[in-house]
Amino acid sequence: MISSSTFTVNGRRFTPPARPLAVICLDGSADEYLDAAMSRGLMPNLLKLSLNGWRGLARAAMPTFTNVNNTCIVTGVPPSVHGIGGNFFLNPENGEEVMMNSAQFLRAETIFPHAQRAGRKVAVVTAKEKLRDIFASGLIAEGGIAFSAEKASAALTATHGIDDVESLVGPTPAIYSGDASVYVLKAGVALLKAGRADFLYLSTTDYIQHKYEPAAEGALEFYAAIDAEIGRLLAAGAVVGVTADHGMNAKQLANGRPNVIFLETELTQRFGGGIRVILPITDPYVAHHGALGSFAQVHLPAGLDVAAVKEWLLQRSGITEVHERATGARLMELPADRMGDLAVASGRDTVLGRTLQWHDLRAVTNGLRSHGGRYEEIVPFLLSEPVNPNYAARASGDLRNFDIFEFTCNGGPGGR
């Protein structure tokens, strides 16, 4: 018997149905990717889900990066509450640039240990190892499972809640491949069928979306493979919710080179030394994006006129938003103490860098697709069940990608 006990986390109430449940974050999946594959008959299961359940669009959190939005999804709250405002930030306590890939930076609990204590068998599978520590926070001690496709072979019962991933799912895939994402969903299916999980979070990687536009053959093949695994989840009786952490856009010139503003260089030339630009997209997977995204935090030296820098930046072609810290924290729902003096976002086809020398652009010489700004903010939101009237009314408002667990648990015909 699968538990349908109610639990509450971060002010949200969850009453999952007494059925297996899987929430999927398709990293980097702008709605155009789903449309391109479905219109060609390559995603029959997702098309069926859309027709028999519910399909719409939701707003992701800013900046539109992986760590930010995955943490929103697994906590049900914005960055201002959970504290993760980027993949990377400048620690004001010591002036060091730090990766925010550890649960030590979390300021809110994830839903997973609460679901486990409420009687669910919880398993979290992520493509990238960088997210596992955040997802596993409090879960392993409660008897749950959390591992990554990237390090599947290294999973141990004491630290991951499981030690036989490869025998259950197959060999560990290469992280720079579509296989890493398909592996995540295959793992979810295997765990469900083996009776080892009935409450799943499956988070993929955006390698394919960085590499291919929606109608490209590589993308279409990838989404067909994803659809096959979604079909297996549905066939196993799972209630399925699908969203994304962010979208993806081409950000390059006609010659294929990145359309980049080297922000630190330009600001230093205009206002002098001591300016530090932090790029929150920065992570260990630079082959995806070369650490180039459409959002930056700018830290200014004492005495420099913040308003003057802001006004100068707003005149720069390619820059669409510049906010001082307090305004940016309010408008973008960010943790103010982990921000710079200015938050800067760029246009749909433009990325922000530090200096030419700081970036290794060899990985993106054949073109750049990236994310981080407003133009990657709207993402898919799909449910395998029809939405009840209460949640239909909510869906017509400001639907967020981090509403997905609540909608999947409570939004079906029997929910309330």
Offer a few descriptive terms:
416 residues, alpha/beta, Alkaline Phosphatase, subunit A, Gyrase A, domain 2, 2 domains, seven-stranded mixed β-sheet, four-stranded antiparallel β-sheet, 17 helices, 32% helix, globular
List the helices and strands and how they pair.
Blueprint: E1 7-9, E2 12-14, E3 21-25, H1 31-39, H2 44-52, E4 54-59, H3 66-75, H4 79-82, E5 88-90, E6 97-99, H5 112-117, E7 122-126, H6 132-135, E8 145-148, H7 157-160, H8 165-169, H9 179-193, E9 199-203, H10 207-211, H11 217-235, E10 239-243, E11 249-250, E12 260-262, H12 263-271, E13 276-278, H13 286-289, E14 295-299, H14 306-314, E15 319-324, H15 325-332, E16 342-346, E17 351-353, E18 369-370, E19 378-383, H16 389-395, H17 404-410
Parallel strand pairs: 3-9, 3-10, 7-8, 7-9, 12-17
Antiparallel strand pairs: 1-2, 4-19, 5-6, 10-19, 11-18, 13-14, 14-16, 15-16
Helix pairs in contact: 1-11, 9-11
Structural class: alpha/beta
On the 0 to 100 scale, the average pLDDT is: 94
- Beta fraction: 15-25%
As a percent range, the share of helical residues equals 25-40%
Count every beta strand, where a strand is a DSSP E run of 2 or more residues.
19
Q: Give the strand line-up of the largest sheet.
A: 4-19-10-3-9-7-8
Written account of the structure:
By secondary structure, the protein is α/β, with parallel strands linked by helices. The chain has 2 domains: 7-92 and 99-248 and 373-410, Alkaline Phosphatase, subunit A (3-Layer(aba) Sandwich); 260-369, Domain 2, Phosphonoacetate Hydrolase (Gyrase A, domain 2). It contains 17 helices and 19 strands. Helix 1 crosses helix 11 (217-235). It is globular. The model has no long low-confidence stretch (mean pLDDT 94).
